[in-house]
Amino acid sequence: MSGIEEKLRQIEELANAEIGRAEKLDRLNDIRVSFLGKKGTLTQVLKSMKDVPPEERPQVGKWVNDTRARIEEQMEIYRARLEEEGLARRLREEEIDVTLPAKKPARGHRHPNTIALEEVERIFVGMGYEVLEGPEIEYDEYNFTKLNIPANHPAKDEQDTFYITDDILLRTQTSPVQARIMEQGKLPIRMIAPGRVFRSDEVDATHSPSFHQIEGLVIDKGITFADLKGTLEVFAKELFGADTRTKFRPHHFPFTEPSAEMDVSCFKCGGKGCRFCKGEGWIEILGCGMVHPHVLEMCGLDPDEYGGFAFGVGLERIALLKYEIDDMRLLYDNDVRFLKQF
Ligand code: DAH
Question: Domains along the chain?
């Protein structure tokens, strides 16, 4: 009997020593298993009860239970201590220096096309224009017929595109928005319509099968070519600088009569001629003209009462010129190192 008592004392001593050396909560758990678990040292003693005479069993049982309680108590004390120490250590180690500059989230950047478009919109909205949109998938009728480009017209070849059916195509120009807006019949009209257009062109430094245009349309009573020139001159000066001069060259577009192309004086050399303007002193910017009476009629307006002007600008062209980018493909590479420069 005293043999058991002695053994229990040794177990308790050993347990206390190991508990005292534990540096981690995990270790305490291991100790609990090895002493108090199902196969633990103390449990073994209980299992050997069958060898103890029955009258002594209550006494031995009490010793075992007391020992167990004391070991548990000891473990509890150490558990609390380790937790406290752990918390203190974490507070020490994870201390943050609030005076350090914060990590800034990486911010995106507006695309040169977007910057140029917003600039053009700002100029025209400032002159009282609305910004409208039309569909990229368009009827042949709006893209061509209502713009005075009937079937078999050679202009259709110049703007070869992607057909979805015989009547439906990816629009080759933003001009169909003109027809759509005139048809709605809400007059007067003063609008620009930016958007994506498509042509079956090969990719090179100045061509892409998909690019953007900005269409302009003004319809009212008594609009003249002077209104067109004045408006586009203001536009050119706002976009390229107050010293910019403009020049209108006669041209042909099926949906305007008369038609013109507008050049601006080179904003690099002021018109003397340089590498940028290829020695010309002038840079071609847009197509424009007075809306053709036949187009007005096809869109339900009376050409004797109403008239107006229209223009079409290539957005990429503006972005390339304004930001002096020499290859259109750079605009679509999506290389942030390139985009960040503007
Ligand atoms: N849609 C023409 C093109 O893609 C550009 C254009 C020229 C638009 C004259 C117009 C205009 O509105 O009046 O080449």
Answer: 2-93 (no CATH), 112-339 (3.30.930.10)
Q: Which tens digit of pLDDT belongs to each residue from 270-291?
A: 999 998 899 999 999 999 999 9
Which SS3 state, helix, strand or coil, does residue 194 take? strand
Maximum CA extent, the chain = 128
Residues enclosing ligand 1, CB less than 6 A?
A: 173, 175, 215, 253, 256, 287-289, 310-312
Burial class (CB in 10 A: 0-12, 13-18, 19+), 206: middle
Token pair belonging to 150: 């009937």
pTM of the model: 0.72
Q: Look-up: residue for tokens 């009827």? A: 139
Read off the DSSP letter of residue 105: P
Strands 189-198 and 130-131: parallel
Using the predicted structure, report yes or no on whether residue 25 has a pLDDT greater than 60. yes
Of 129, 175, 211, the one to substitute when testing ligand 1's pocket (max ligand atoms within 8 A of C-beta) is 175
Is the Cα torsion angle 227, 229, 232, 238 positive or negative in sign? negative
Ligand 1 centroid, distance to 308 Cα (angstroms): 14
Residue 312 CA: nearest ligand 1 atom is 8
**Quick check: helix, strand or coil at residue 76?**
helix
In three-state form (DSSP H/G/I as H, E/B as E, the rest C), the secondary structure along 187-230 is CCEEEEEEEEEECCCCCCCCCCCEEEEEEEEEEECCCCHHHHHH
Cα 110 to ligand 1 centre (Å)? 27
Residue 95 has φ and ψ, to the nearest 5°, of -60, 135
| Distance from the alpha carbon of residue 78 to the mean position of ligand 1, in angstroms | 85
Cα 35 to averaged position of ligand 1 atoms, centre (Å): 91
> CA 286 to CA 214: how far, in whole Å?
10
